[in-house]
Amino acid sequence: MIDLHAHTTCSDGTDSPRALVNVALTRGITTLAITDHDSIAGWQEASNAIRAGLKLVPGAEISCLTTDGISVHMLGLLFDGADKAILQMLEETRDGRIPRMKKMIELLNADGIDVSMDDVDAARPEGATLGRPHLADALVARGFIASRDEAFQGLLNNDSKFYVSHLAPTPESAIAQIRSAGGVAVIAHAFASHRGEVLKSEAFTSLVKAGLNGIEVDHRDHNAQERSMLREIALDLGLVVTGSSDYHGSGKLNSLGENTTDAQEWERLESMADKRRVVQA
């Protein structure tokens, strides 16, 4: 089984990189991508934990914003982790998350929801990329909500009055950096409408011109109609179709391997990188 989207404690997952590898082995995953938000901090630990039967795909999920303010997540896979330009982009995106979090906390406080930056820091593993899931965990700890899922269906949804965007590259810029660093770019959960406003179908033409390689079609947050539409777009534009879990450990309901990528599609995608960077024992 090939799962090309999973998170660790280096962003908003609950499994360490080593634990993620162990879970993948027990679930029968044969190829796994580690794609923490705006970070490659988990690559080394995960690589060191690899054993026979599992191949590791180094990657990151890059937070992007279109020029008209739509949130887009771009999976960068198989890029050179020593490339200075992409590392700078990831660092700048991480830095932009701090003022955004403080503003969201201010909005919650103004509405009578007593949560603080200290609460969020207490809920965030050391070194993890700051994100809404850590605010959700803080709200759970303070008793305002029952779970992360409840938070993202309400208080922290993209359409919520408490939502604040942060400085981030455009999808086209992120794609360009990924490709320049030798990797491949796959747009994640592009039609997950329950998360908020999503891209229009015609926007994919611009992404392809920038170098987009694939579309994450089979994802828990896409219904049957959304999957069908994305599959058709991928076929029309010659893009690779992927499927993945977007696993976060106990932080979300997503189970590792619940959606997977066809082996031929993965082979096609991997061939588009400038060199082989899959890690194996």
UniProtKB/TrEMBL annotation:
The terms under GO molecular function for this entry are:
5'-3' DNA exonuclease activity; 5'-3' RNA exonuclease activity
Residues covered by the Polymerase/histidinol phosphatase N-terminal domain: 2-66
Checking Pfam families in the record gives:
PHP
Q: What is this protein called?
A: Unannotated protein
- This protein's species is freshwater metagenome
Q: Lineage of this protein's species?
A: unclassified sequences, metagenomes, ecological metagenomes
